[in-house]
Amino acid sequence: MKSSRRWSNIIKPVLAVSSLIAVAGCAKDAPQDTWQPAGPNAKMIDDLQRPIFYIAGIVGVIVFAAVAWAIFRFRDRGQAMPEQTHGKPALEITLTVIPVLILIGVGVPTVGTIFDLAKTDDTEMTINVTGQQWWWEYDYPAVGDNAEVYGISDPIVTSGQLVIPEDTKVLLRVTSRDVIHSYWIPKLNGKKDSVPGRVHLLRMEGSEPGIYAGQCTEFCGLSHAYMRMEAVVLSKADYATWVANQLEAYNSPSADNVLAVEGEKLFLQQCARCHQVNGLLNADGTPNVAAPDQYVVSGAAPNLTNLMTRNTFAGASWDLLTPECRDDVWNATPAEFGEKYLAGVSEDCLNQKDLREWLRNAPEKKPMYADPTKLTETGGKYRGMPALGLTEDQISALVAYLLELK
Amino acid sequence: MITTGSKFLYGLGSATSIAAILWFIANDGGSIGVVSLAFLAVALFFMGAIASFVRDGHVLSTDTDAHASSNAAQRNVGRSWFPVGTAFSAGMVAVGLVSSPGIFKVGICLLFAMLGQWLIKNWSDRASSDAAYNEKVRAWVVHPLEIPVGGAIVLAIIVLSFSRIMLSLSKESGLIVFSVMAALVLTFGSMVSVRRGASRRVIGAVAGVVLVALSGTGIAFALDGERHELVEAAAEDHFAHRACGEEAEETDEDAARSVSAKSSVAATVILRDGRLFAEMDGWNGELTSITLQRSNPSTILFVNEDDHEHRMVVEYGKIVEDLGGGVSKDTVLEACTSLITKGGTQAVSIVIPKPSFASEEPYSITVPGVEGASIEIQVP
Ligand SMILES: [Cu+2]
């Protein structure tokens, strides 16, 4: 009676913890699940990690069982000390040879996969990925196949969401402007560190249109947790539409959109010194050249030319879409996804709340060492976007203007 | 009653209190240092008080007669060379003050080492009446510091001497000297490990002689100066070349000496058969237009495969400073390698602050003296 009570005391918590762990593994729609590859590179990793996981699992079970058996079978019952021997060559050699064979079995395909994942000579499209505290910039050079095959006749600069064509071998040139970050879209490939002064290569390929989430995986300072990113895979036809839209010439808001016209003026005064909007003209008619190098530690701020074609902002940490509109895009079937994504952010779908909060006081939303009194170490430069002390009317005008940027 | 052991602790405690006050003054009232130093001082005084109370643990505190006759209360009879050493260090500090900061720093270090050793020696000498035991106690305290510091100094002497020798020798003889030395060290090491019986004395003596010979040679070569290529390259300034023209004479083969800077570069620029082109990971073939990110540290590696010496020049716009009164100052942003010979490579690291559309002239990579050699840089 007593001993069975003791057993149930042990078994209950063990059962509880293990079932909790088991249930945690059941998250079906986890957006960052390495076990659900969505492209050939991630598939290669998956094909490697699954058998190794099973082998390691079986070995683990055998070892634990043997240890448990030894503990139970030879527990101290006051029996006499058994005969002591030293060494048993046959056993020792066997127990060395078996792990060696297993490790060779694991090692050969691992090395093969590493080499396959490092291949670059089959690249079809090349994109620069630059990390900085705390967001990712993408630029699509207008060179080689990018220009000739994919119609990128002028460089495109975006942030947060990487947009790539389906079934295309994309090569990312990953680097950093400040500290070490790491680029990881779990469903599409493994991680790659982004290191200042170095260019690291990462293959990226998606087999099905959709959005694939990821996040910076190298601790990079205060807002590391808010440094997220998304890869958007579009069908080739949709991709061409996306490129054409990114390259469209800038249009000032039409005169009847009074609020947006007001917003453009405000943008020139308050925002254009950090944020580039391609084609935006100064009041004197000269092209506006942003100078983030003078205001931001990393020397860069997101290019906002086509802000409303992406649907997240500030390191993909907040949605530009309301929850309903966001779900509509995220849960779209692959066939419908392209159209929904390309629709961008309409006035009805705009997530006013988060965007307004951002403009009201960005460092409060995303910690960025932005206290103006503590910037002596960085020569007065911010590590993100400062609070600009805008009034609610100014914010409304700016939001109306930003809605035009697509 | 102030005993020898407690004296040591009270002394350290007082020094720590002073340090806490100095810290407070020097750091404008910064708290972390003051709090930790004050804690340390309190702990030291407390331990000193315990040592006083138990008379260093040597005699019963109630046995007042023994206070004067205990070991701890006796003067050391041995001769000490610490006064001389301390005086010498103090002299060095004084000389350093008027001559060079290097001598001053070494003097300060020596002075502290001497005083510390003196303090500990005095304490240990009176730990008991047994000299051998006293020596052992001293060793316990100082060896954990003495041995690593001594090892580091010996290592520094070896590295410094050897590097002076290698920097002075020509590249060819350097190769031979290095191989012979390495072979000798290996032979000696193998002999020592194979012949277990070898006396420690002999090994120590051999090592000592080699160390003296090495540092002697090192000093001699240091006085002789570095080989002329290095002197010339230094005169031209390895990394910040002021003259980007075709004319400068000095060459610096392989000047970017860091291996890491030469791997995973943004672009490799190659001069071959009078053509200049770039190779970039992710792009196939020879490029004459490359894209670099704005505000991003980008390393460009230049490989000269031409028979003549050449340098690579990167131009990326100019800064126009308004000096007021209609006067402005132009600074051309450029960076270049030094002249490098055939087969040489050198890296240049640049940060381009402005996009190319902000500049009237395109950003470019050129090689002075090679007609038509130009690569366009696009910065979005
Ligand atoms: Cu990061």
Q: Secondary-structure blueprint of this entry?
A:
The complex is a heterodimer of chains A (406) and B (380).
Chain A: H1 2-24, H2 40-73, H3 89-117, E1 125-132, E2 135-140, H4 144-148, E3 156-159, E4 161-165, E5 170-176, E6 181-183, E7 192-194, E8 200-204, E9 210-215, E10 228-234, H5 236-247, H6 258-270, H7 292-295, E11 312-313, E12 318-319, H8 323-330, H9 334-342, H10 352-360, H11 362-365, H12 392-402
Parallel strand pairs in A: 1-5, 4-10
Antiparallel strand pairs in A: 1-2, 2-3, 5-8, 6-7, 9-10, 11-12
Helix pairs in contact in A: 2-3, 6-12, 10-12
Chain B: H1 4-26, H2 31-53, H3 66-69, H4 82-98, H5 101-125, H6 131-168, H7 171-194, H8 200-224, H9 228-236, E1 267-272, E2 275-279, E3 289-291, E4 298-304, E5 313-324, E6 327-336, E7 345-350, E8 363-366, E9 374-378
Parallel strand pairs in B: 1-4, 3-9
Antiparallel strand pairs in B: 1-2, 4-7, 5-6, 5-8, 8-9
Helix pairs in contact in B: 1-2, 4-5, 5-6, 6-8
The structure holds copper (II) ion (CU).
Structure, explained:
The complex is a heterodimer of chains A (406) and B (380). Chain A is elongated. In chain A, a hairpin with an 8-residue loop joins β6 (181-183) and β7 (192-194). Chain A has a five-stranded mixed beta sheet with strand order 3-2-1-5-8. In chain A, α6 crosses α12 (392-402) and α10 crosses α12. Chain A has helices at 2-24, 40-73, 89-117, 144-148, 236-247, 258-270, 292-295, 323-330, 334-342, 352-360, 362-365, 392-402, and strands at 125-132, 135-140, 156-159, 161-165, 170-176, 181-183, 192-194, 200-204, 210-215, 228-234, 312-313, 318-319. Chain A has 406 residues and is of the alpha+beta class. Chain A contains twelve helices and twelve strands. Chain B is an alpha+beta fold and 380 residues long. Chain B is 49% helix and 15% strand. The longest helix of chain B has 38 residues, at 131-168. The N and C termini of chain B lie far apart (79 Å). The chains are: A alpha+beta (406), B alpha+beta (380). Chains A and B meet through β1 and β5 of A and β3 of B. The site of copper (II) ion has 8 residues of chain A, from loops.
